[in-house]
């Protein structure tokens, strides 16, 4: 009777350990998802800033090409 009860107790402890580890993984996945969302937003803002900054530069470059073609 001792061995079956020991097996059941060890199985319960094993499942409990897996449950704790699963909870920790879930918490880390949520934290990582938040960081990915924040990074994505920052990249999007940087891309918008770059696009706005490149507009006048592209216009100046096009004007320089037109000037060179006319000469």
Features of the shown structure:
1 helix, mainly alpha, about 70 residues
Please characterize this protein's 3D structure.
By secondary structure, the protein is mostly helical. Helix content is 97%, strand content 0%. The protein has one helix and no strands. The N and C termini lie far apart (102 Å). The model has no long low-confidence stretch (mean pLDDT 92).
Short description:
This protein is mostly helical.
Q: What string, H for helix and E for strand, traces the elements in order?
A: H
Q: Give the overall silhouette.
A: rod-shaped
Secondary-structure content class? mainly alpha
Q: Evaluate the radius of gyration.
A: 30 Å
Chart the SSEs and their pairings.
Layout: H1 2-70
